Amino acid sequence: MGRILLVFRLVRSDVRRHPGQAAMLLLSLTVATGMLALGGSLGGATEALYRHTRAVTAGPDVVAVSPDDSAATARTQAALTSDPAVAAHSGPYLQYYSKLTAKGSTSHVVVTAADAEPGPVDHPLVTSGTWVRSGGVVVERGFANALGVRVGDHVTVAGRSLPVVGTAVSAATTVYPFAQLTGPDGGPSDYSGLVWMTGQDTGPLAARHLPVSSLLYLKLRAPDATQAFVNAHRGPSVYANFQSWQFMIGQDATIIEGSRPILVIGSWLLSFLAIAGVATLAAGRAAKQTRRVGLLKAVGATPGLIAAVLFTEYVTLALLADTLGLLAARLAQPAVANPTASLLTTSAGPSGGTVVLTTVVALAVAVLTTFGPTMRALRTETVAALADTARRPDHRARLTRLSAMLPVPVLLGLRLIARRPGRAFLQACSITATVITITALLIVFVQRQVSYGIDSPHLGNLKDAQSRHTMVVVAAALVVLAAVNTLTTTWTTALEARHTMAVARTLGATPGQVTAGLSAAQLLPTVPGALAGVPLGIAFVWPFSAAGTVYPPAWWLFGAAFATVAITAALTALPARIAARRSVAQTLSAESA
């Protein structure tokens, strides 16, 4: 217990001395693990939401949709309800195909004639207002959200204005905008919403000779045997199309099918940026860790205890970040998995496999990026660790003669890159990952959007909108982490090179040239990284592109890449300027001491 308490106190004191570095590590890993957990949990999210909605609303196992209300339809429905495999049924209910206008938007709509008291199968859950009553209409919640209507508003159905008396959720149909199940006369369906009316209020619709279908909701004794039931009733004499609850899950999931790959791929890009940031932090703290190791060795600490102190801080922060990321994914999952609001939300969070995956990723990022600096510190002799002398760079005569012809800022920047080539490579890769995402975002935003409305842009395409919103979130997270990494890298490089820069100033370099040199150390790898991100971004989007994919003008893409370079230059200016203003005498006297 004494050793554990000692490790805890040493870790706590180190975090208190370096809160900014701990916050950066926490931010990077939280965003990466949260995105990864959210992407991993979307696989079965729609099914979980549908099952929950189906259980609450007594949803059917099979919906038999007949293209009319003829005698042939009645015979088919009688055969279905008399099948011993059917435990209960509701209906048949007539469904009319019409148009609805509300708040300047016009949409296809199916109007279902509903009973004042629902039958044993399908009990739509009223989420606001009341259930159907004479002279009023109940709007399916997802459709109501898309239209922007609430209880008390008026909608026009087939030329007749009616008040909205309620909104409801049902598992007897697929989510908005797939409410038709099948189109008029059994043909292809259009994007459509759903409303319920009383049988009396649907009389004017029948008088207008609108297309009509007949719905029969069936509850089977073996809900998992829907395919066998459907196969048993297929044939030329069966006047119905069948929609099973398994089919509805698959159809509902199409709304978010584009979000999962975006989140998963985005999480891996974010994980790479987290690795780059944490590696820079670990390398920047190597000197301080070496001196700290020397002090611990001097007072008798064993290598195992020292390793425990150095690793515990990063592992603890990684586990905390993983917990925060999983919590964020749990809170965000209902909104991401149910963008139409046509299903009831549930509190189901990431699965056990997803939790294990994010935990392993967080720990791997923390441990692997700190392993090298920690081992080097442990191998350093006690006297050398306490002395903490700067590493003398290798001198290469030919490179020295060539570099002497360069401008001073470029010369200083190249020397800093030559001392830390791995860091420059990580900086270039971080910018490449950011530009890849920005390029993909631009390509997504120039695609032609298909509206769910009729000659109206107000009812946007929810599927495309969901993908766009997800891309924006991923791009924003990548930009923020890339900016944090750039600031961290510049400041760490400035601290490590303070003696070199002080010597350069004694030899005639101005503070402005030193500032430009520190910025150049980040900008030189940024330019090729940004240029490489454009073609890689196009290649990233290509597997997900359709035949008619539209690409933005080249100047858009390369303009975004050069804007990234300009923003990087601005971000490096402040920490570089602060470091360049440090007193030369103070720096060199600290070195000699």
Low-confidence stretches: none
DSSP E strands, number: 10
Spatial shape? elongated
Radius of gyration: 32 Å
Largest sheet: spatial strand order: 2-3-8-5-7-6
- Category by helix and strand content: alpha+beta
Summed over residues and divided by their number, the pLDDT gives a mean of 79
Give the strand content.
5-15%
Oligomer category: single chain
- Helicity level: 55-70%
Main pleated-sheet profile: 6 strands, mixed, barrel
Which terms summarize this structure?
six-stranded mixed barrel, 593 residues, 21 helices, elongated, 60% helix, 10 strands, single chain, alpha+beta
Topology:
Layout: H1 2-17, H2 19-41, H3 45-57, E1 62-66, H4 71-81, E2 86-102, E3 105-114, E4 125-129, E5 137-140, H5 141-147, E6 154-157, E7 160-169, E8 192-198, H6 203-207, E9 212-220, H7 226-233, E10 241-244, H8 245-253, H9 259-284, H10 286-298, H11 303-337, H12 352-379, H13 382-387, H14 397-403, H15 408-419, H16 421-445, H17 462-496, H18 498-506, H19 511-541, H20 554-580, H21 584-592
Helix pairs in contact: 1-11, 2-9, 2-11, 2-12, 2-17, 3-8, 9-12, 9-16, 9-17, 10-12, 11-12, 15-16, 15-19, 16-17, 16-19, 16-20, 17-18, 17-19, 17-20, 18-21, 19-20
Structure description:
- There is one protein chain.
- The protein has 21 helices and ten strands.
- With 593 residues, the protein is an alpha+beta fold.
- The protein has a six-stranded mixed β-barrel with strand order 2-3-8-5-7-6.
- Helix 16 (421-445) crosses helix 19 (511-541).
Summarize the structure.
The chain has 593 residues and is of the alpha+beta class. It contains 21 helices and ten strands.
